[in-house]
Structure formats: C-alpha cells, structure tokens
Amino acid sequence: xxxxxxxxxxxxTASTEGTIEHPPVDRRRARAERANAPIGxxxxxxxxxxxxxxxxxxxxxxxxxxxxxGASQLFLAAVLAxxxxxxxxxxxxxxxxxxxxxxxxxxxxxxIAGGLGAFLGALLGLLLAWPLALLPRPAGQLVPxxxxxxxxxxxxxxxxxxxxxxxxxxxRASRPGEPALVLDTSALxxxxxxxxxxxxxxxxxxxxxxxxxxxxxxxAESRESTRRARGRRGLEVLRRLREDLGAxxxxxxxxxxxxxxxxxxxARCSELGGRLVTCDQRLAxxxxxxxxxxxxxxxxxxxxxxxxxxxxxxxLLLVGPGREPEQAIGYLEDGTLVVVERAESFIxxxxxxxxxxxxxxxxxxxxxxxxxQRGETP
Length: 378
Fold this sequence. Notes:
The chain is an alpha/beta fold. It has 13 helices and ten strands.
C-alpha cells in the first residue's frame, strides 16, 4: 500500500520543473517568480537595451525622411525599451519551454531525419535565393531570405514525415522505439502500475496527459474525505513513479481547447500509437472500439489468481453472513469471495468447503460452495 502524504503536503507532490506541473493559478505565480529571478532580470535589462537601440535607430530613420511623420528618437527609444523590459523574460521563457516540450516528444530518429531535411532545405533555399537577389529593390532584399526560410521549413517537415525512408537511405534503419504506456486517472489511483513497472510486466516510456494530472488535483482537493484520499494517493504514486523512472515519465501538454479527461487520454494514446493502462472498464471498452491496446491491472491480477475448480475442497474461515438466508462468506488468500450455503451457524469457525460453481463478474470472481460434513456441530 502506498503511503499517503499529510494534507499540507498535497500541493507538493508535483515537480516544478516542467514534467509534473501545477494548476493554472500556481503557473501564473511561477512565471512571475521566474521572470524576477536573476536570469529573468538579465533578460529584462537585455530587452531594455535592445529596445532602446532599435527605437533610437528607427527614430533616426524617421527623422531623416521628411515625407514621414516626424518622431522623437528619444520617445521611440523609451517606448521600445520599456516594452522590452516588461515582456522579454516572458517571451523568452515561454518560447524555450515550448521548444523543450516539443523536443521531449521527438525520438532520436525523428531529430536526425528532421535535421537532414532542414539542411537539404536550407541548401536548396540558398541556391534559389542567389538568382532572386538580382531582382530590383525591395524585392531583391526581401524575397531571398523568405525563400530560404520557407525551403528550410519545408525540408524539416518532409524529413520528419519521411524519416523511415530517409534513415534507411543513409544506412541507419529506423528502429522502433519503446512502446508508449499512457496512464489514466484510475491506473494512478489504483497504484499497482508502479509494482508492475518495477517487475517488468509493463515496459516502455510512460506518458501522463496533463488532463489526468489536473483531474488528480481536483480529486485531491475534494471536500469528501474518501475521494480526497484517492486523489492524494494518485499524486503520491505519480511522484514515486517520477523518482523511479526519471526521464522515462513525461507529462503531455493539455489540448487546446480543453477536452474531457477520458477523451484526451484516448486521443493521446492514439497519437502516440501506445497502449492505454486503465482500471476503468468503460474507458477500456471505448479505447478498444477505437482500436487501441488496453492493459488493465485488474484483469492481470485476475489472470494470476490461483485457479479454483468445481469439486475442489478447501479450508475456509467464515467471517460473516451472506446476502441470502443461511449463507456465510469467507475469503481465499488472494481475496476471492467464497459464498457457502447453509453455513450461517458456522460463522467464526474454519470449515471444509467443496466448490460447487464459480462465477465471473465485472468486479471479480465469485466462488460458491457447500459444507463438507465431518460430524461437527455448530
């Protein structure tokens, strides 16, 4: 059983460095704190300097052209400097975060193929830009860089989409990556996924859609104590998975516009071509209809239970009454419920039971039996 963290530590179960993120309110506060950190202040002053330089230069150009509206160099420099000071940290940090998030989802083969495509596209763009530079101004100044940039972008996209063929041509056959395992909320709350990954039953890179993380936060903040404990257990399991897997666990960015959690999980699993790990039977059925492979810890545990057949005899401690009159119930070592007919008077005692039938239900397996008379009296 995974230990639960105290209530005051529930908000600390998520990492702050880009993999397990905080809710939107905390994200705005984190962006402001990062913008005021030493690196953020350095970016502010860099933006102030660049803005002032650009404003001064642009103001000088306007002042030299009588047909244009006159503008003060000092005024333009001040406006652009203030704009650079206020916005540069946020623009730079958001751009870097977006690039890193995209790079984390790319495989090595995709990066190599995209780089080759970008190189070939840039080379073609330069060849096309050379004759276009002979065009009269301003076309001769604007068209060549635009063509070179467009060719580089097209080359990158083509290289990424045709990476298998490109890598096979250069002697590096694209190897299939590790299978992707997409976890939903129920799998994290259940908690057995960590033990299954440690024992090697499930292998691959683990992905958690951000919608799942947000749902865990909502459950952990619920007013209902049982529901709140389930949410905190899921966050604790996720924190332990981060410690176990390191870079082998990634949180995927949320869909824009927002989607329901189950729909987002199925969509992410379909995009990655991965396997869905869930304990939610309804979600599992929907995913199978979509053609996805579903791994259910409940079904695995059921398959690993020791078989019980009709006619087997077993010793059982009766712990309580059943639903029907004169019934008593007990449990096998693996937790399987056994219903014994006409045994209510033997509750609290160990008896010998013969299995008469078994029943498989959506919630597990039921075993029915009857007493093997050995001369004992209640």
